[in-house]
């Protein structure tokens, strides 16, 4: 995919290849950045960003949790995302807002240090390209972080070292992706995705107390399911419940809705995308592409 031409940095556009930082920048050395992943979709009315405001609110909430200052407000960053799409003449894109410390040097103390805000937008397919029919997953030996260790409710760069270790273990063992559990043995989420299971036509997903990131796509699916008349339970799940579920799938901005065919080499249902997964996936696709008017307010036109 071609590189975009411009990137938004502190309210100004810079050429994509010129957006550089020093090797000793604090957020590069210590993982002290805050970010979001947002999708812009091609619709009949032009490019539109899905749940832009909700994503940027979460970005600022993450910054607040980590005590990161920024001189920009929510509205300015929302407009920055839209203008980045326009400036690069993109019809659809994955958008990455990023707040990071700009200080240079050794030392983890961030008191009095300033931050910058960058927004990149680039063409992007599905996170699991070539795996549209579904994934074979492994429950990793790495446990999901919890609020006594790092705040899982913040989308922070350093938090994702937990995800990288989990995904690496699964991939090295021949699986497509990992599933993390909590210290109490409850299902948490994937490395970069929330997880759902279906049993007897009831949609089940781990609760906030499982140390999950409260995904925007997760919230979208819950709302879609309820509007369709499906029963939804947010509760703790043991790993064996995944093994015996009728359907299991991941959700996320990058993953969208991706079926899970097996967990720990145990086939889920008929080892193919189930009817509830398919129903929700089709409805989700119609909504993000502007074809379903019930949730039209979730789309922000770029023009």
Q: How does this model look, in words?
A:
By secondary structure, the chain is an alpha+beta fold. It folds into 2 domains: 6-122, Aminotransferase class 4, branched-chain amino acid transferase, N-terminal domain (D-amino Acid Aminotransferase, Chain A, domain 1); 135-288, D-amino Acid Aminotransferase, subunit A, domain 2 (D-amino Acid Aminotransferase, Chain A, domain 2, Alpha-Beta Barrel), CATH 3.20.10. The protein contains 7 helices and 17 strands. The strands form 2 sheets. Strands 8, 9, 10, 11, 12, 13, 14, 15 and 16 form a 9-stranded mixed β-sheet that branches. Strand 9 (177-181) and strand 10 (187-189) form a beta hairpin. The longest helix is centred in the N-terminal third of the chain and has 14 residues, at 52-65. The protein is globular and about 50 Å long. The model has no long low-confidence stretch (mean pLDDT 96).
């Amino acid at each position: 995919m071609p590189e975009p031409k411009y990137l938004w940095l502190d309210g100004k556009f810079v050429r994509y290849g010129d957006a550089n930082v020093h090797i000793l920048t604090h957020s590069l050395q210590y993982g002290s950045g805050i970010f979001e992943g947002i999708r812009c979709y091609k619709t009949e009315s032009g490019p539109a960003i899905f749940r832009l405001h909700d994503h940027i609110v979460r970005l600022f909430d993450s910054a607040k949790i980590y005590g990161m200052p920024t001189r920009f407000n929510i509205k300015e960053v929302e407009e920055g995302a839209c203008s980045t799409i326009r400036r690069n003449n993109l019809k659809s894109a994955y958008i990455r807002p990023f707040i990071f410390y700009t200080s240079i040097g050794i030392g983890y103390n961030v008191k009095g240090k300033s931050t910058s805000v960058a927004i990149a937008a680039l063409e992007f397919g599905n996170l699991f390209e070539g795996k549209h029919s579904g994934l074979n997953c492994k429950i990793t030996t790495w446990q999901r972080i919890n609020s006594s260790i790092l705040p899982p409710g913040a989308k922070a760069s350093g938090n994702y070292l937990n995800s990288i270790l989990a995904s690496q273990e699964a991939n090295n063992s021949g699986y497509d992706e990992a599933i993390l559990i909590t210290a109490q043995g409850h299902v948490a989420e994937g490395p970069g995705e929330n997880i759902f299971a279906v049993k007897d036509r009831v949609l089940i997903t781990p609760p906030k107390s499982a140390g999950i990131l409260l995904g925007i796509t997760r919230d979208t699916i819950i709302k879609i399911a309820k509007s369709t008349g499906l029963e939804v339970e947010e509760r703790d799940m043991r790993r064996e419940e995944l093994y015996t579920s009728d359907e299991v799938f991941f959700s996320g901005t990058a993953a969208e809705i991706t079926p899970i065919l097996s967990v720990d080499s145990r086939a889920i249902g008929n080892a193919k995308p189930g009817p509830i997964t398919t129903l929700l996936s089709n409805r989700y696709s119609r909504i993000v592409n502007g074809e379903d008017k019930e949730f039209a307010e979730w789309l922000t036109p770029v023009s």
